[in-house]
Amino acid sequence: MSEKNDKKFMVVPGEAVGTVAAQSIGEQSTQMILRTFHAAGIASVVTTKGLPRLIELIDARKRPKFPTMQIRLEKGVESKYEKVRDIWRKLEDVKVRNLEKQIDEDFRTSTMTITLDPEKLQFFELTPGSVSKKVSKLENVDVELEGQAVKVKVKKKEGIKSIRTSFVNVLETSVSGVPGISKALIQQNDDGTYYITTSGSNMEEVLKIEGVDKEGVYSNNPFEVARIYGIEAARNLIANELITTIREEGLHVSFRHIALLADAMTYTGEIRSAGRHGIAGDKDSVLARAAYEETVKHFINASVFGEKDQLRGVAENILIGKQIGLGTGKIRLAIKKEDIKKLSEK
């Protein structure tokens, strides 16, 4: 970067960088269109976009509405479709209900007969025996295999509701794949190599699959990334997701503002929201906390515990009409005693 461009990014000492960042992100987010992404019949992965995604990230919600992953593959695998397809088969979470052709439930005898679809079994490279073996691991059920049908009988009968619950548990039993990944798609890059996108996220299990590039797995869930790769990786993910979400709406915010927000959310070593349950609620100043939300609660707690406000921040100084410690208010002038003496002599 040239010296001329370097100066463009310099900040004057005392600049209210937090306020400028908040204004820059807030102004752009008000321009976003609240829209619903509809993907019926389209072979794609549904994700949260626009303002809902921005709120999701800033509020640090532990479970994204639509968690997704992008999985890169090792060099010897990414260009060979058959090998990529083998990995894809290991990813998609296949449940018993995804393999059924017909279901017969009999509440009088508390039995359920699941007739399996041979085409679906062949597609996922499964057998009736492997399905019955998985179901037999459940508690409170006896399993019998009759050709292409799996017959399930509930052991303990505590009313129709408990029988129905057992039937649902059988249908929701995972037979193969990675738990949490409901859908996986093979996609192709411009250079002819392949990668996989998923609906649902489970980095821990995906990283165990042979052929997956351990440094090329991307999840849109910051908490999962923080657990697997560390807080610095989560900080980068939050910043990247924020800037990508804003740019997808055709808007622009300088990355410096986004990076400052991501740093503020993660510098303690944990991901915190920007609201009253995170950054705003953890401020040392009683007045600053009370100015944001839940005013009465903060004043009562402060009086009970005898808290003192040092009036070092911006919000609390504005509240009492005192000059804030930013901009020109950051400068303090002093004069030497000798100079005062000289002036008085004149």
Summarize this structure as a short list of keywords or feature phrases.
346 residues, alpha+beta, Alpha-Beta Plaits, Gyrase A, domain 2, 4 domains, four-stranded antiparallel β-sheet, elongated
Structure overview:
This protein is of the alpha+beta class and 346 residues long. The protein is 40% helix and 16% strand. The protein folds into 4 domains: 14-62 and 223-266, no CATH class; 68-92 and 180-219, 2-Layer Sandwich (Alpha-Beta Plaits); 94-176, Gyrase A, domain 2 (2-Layer Sandwich); 283-330, Orthogonal Bundle (DNA polymerase, domain 1). It has 15 helices and 10 strands. Helix 10 packs antiparallel against helix 11 (255-266) and helix 12 runs antiparallel to helix 13 (295-305).
Strand content: 15-25%
Please give the oligomerization state of what you see: single chain
Global geometry: elongated
From the alpha-carbon coordinates, what is the Rg to the nearest angstrom? 29 Å
Helical percentage:
40-55%
- Unreliable stretches: 35-43
Largest sheet: 4 strands, antiparallel
Trace the largest sheet across and list its strands: 8-9-1-10
Number of helices: 15
Query: How many structural domains in the coordinates?
Result: 4
The total count of strands amounts to 10
